[in-house]
Amino acid sequence: MKCAAVVLFLLPAALMAQDANSSNFHIHGVGRLELTFTENEFALALEVPGADIVGFEHAAENEDDRSQVADAISDLSKPLTLFELPPEAGCVTASANVVLVGDAFGQADTSDNGAAEHNEFHADYVMQCEDMAALTKIRFAFFERFTEARHLTVQLTSPEGTLDVLVEREMSVLTLPK
Ligand SMILES: [Zn+2]
């Protein structure tokens, strides 16, 4: 899934347009976050519609569009400012990779069957923590930074199993199960 997204990012715009047209890509306002916990680190995989992040999904057409995209990628590259963790857990960002999947960096191309009308920001992070037991909650400052985002469907995976939860703008603190 993640590999496929990266591959698509590298394909010519025409192929990406086909992909966007052939799938109901996403619902605006609703992003997805997968959290995978291991012994002393956890991974986050975030997928959010461009509409939620920068307010548009067309190809960046002018300097203002391009700077909004660049600012968003810069902010998405700092996960600890978006997903606030208890300081006592002592977590640091081991890796952060952000890509825009879709057509937004290409030239505007609406000549063939509407081109790509959707794009998504995808971000993958690995966080390393000194004390995973102190990792009791996550506060989603994400919703303060990205004001068009309404929900994140969150899937928590640990050796104990998998749990699906919805985190909303109005209830933006996720209490992690023990
Ligand atoms: Zn869209």
Walkthrough of the structure:
The protein has 178 residues and is of the alpha+beta class. It has one domain (2-7, 31-175). It is 25% helix and 35% strand. It contains six helices and nine strands, in the order H-H-E-E-H-H-H-E-E-E-E-H-E-E-E. The longest helix is centred in the middle third of the chain and has 14 residues, at 63-76. Zinc ion binds at residues 25-26, 28, 49, 51, 57, 118.
Q: What's the arrangement of secondary structure elements?
A:
Blueprint (H helix, E strand, L loop, with lengths): L1 H9 L2 H10 L7 E8 L3 E9 H4 L9 H14 L2 H4 E2 L6 E11 L18 E10 L7 E4 L1 H4 L5 E8 L2 E8 L4 E3 L3
Parallel strand pairs: 1-7
Antiparallel strand pairs: 1-2, 2-5, 3-6, 4-5, 6-9, 7-8
Bound molecules: zinc ion.
